[in-house]
Amino acid sequence: DAGVTQSPTHLIKTRGQQVTLRCSPISGHKSVSWYQQVLGQGPQFIFQYYEKEERGRGNFPDRFSARQFPNYSSELNVNALLLGDSALYLCASSLAGSAYGYTFGSGTRLTVV
Amino acid sequence: GESVGLHLPTLSVQEGDNSIINCAYSNSASDYFIWYKQESGKGPQFIIDIRSNMDKRQGQRVTVLLNKTVKHLSLQIAATQPGDSAVYFCAERNSGGYQKVTFGTGTKLQVIP
Fold first, then answer.
1. For the residues of B17-30, what is the DSSP string, one character each?
2. Which of B2, B44, B101 faces A99 most closely, judged by CB atoms?
3. CB-CB contact of B81 with B106 (8 Å)
4. What is the mean pLDDT of each run of 10 residues along chain A (113 residues)?
5. What distance in Å separates residue B78's CA from the closest CA in chain A?
6. In A, which residues are within 8 Å of B8 by CB distance?
7. Which of B45, B100, B106 sits opposite A99 (nearest CB)?
8. How far apart are CA B86 and CA B46, in angstroms?
9. Which pLDDT score is estimated for A81?
């Protein structure tokens, strides 16, 4: 069985640009959560989606947005990129709208120059 | 893969010895405490969790201890192996509402062969 897949694996963008990151959850999982992990720190919660609805949002600016599709895959969008947005972006999926049984993908490494 | 262990506290352990990784948490309302292992280039991997009304839980080669009086969590790894080398994060899962995982500061475990 495929795990949580994220694309692309690496990305380099320029300040001010916009980026879209993609996540496919484990088959049967209906909830997707996004985390940002700055180098040397623990992951920070950005969003949780369940059944295509936003269930929760962390302390991130409105430049960050996300959505979940009918097949439960998800996209994270970041507008007006700043150097400080450079990080590993992780997606986690779970069966229901809970954080129990989170399975993380390997992430997308975003570098903003 | 790129390391997530830069600037993290590091614990160096001889292969075959036991490892103890400690963590202080802040949110008394959390219903579960979790340990994750993160290898270079990968997302966090669930190791073991403990419910807030317990003080000890054992898994395969791992034991988690919870001391709610001093808000302290520890992970014990028996007979540490080279494959245990990674960054370990303690985390909390909140109760009620939508659930998310809040990660603490990581500890880098280096196993010396």
1. S-EEEEEE---TTE
2. B101
3. no
4. 91 98 95 94 94 93 97 97 98 78 93 98
5. 24
6. 40
7. B100
8. 13
9. 98
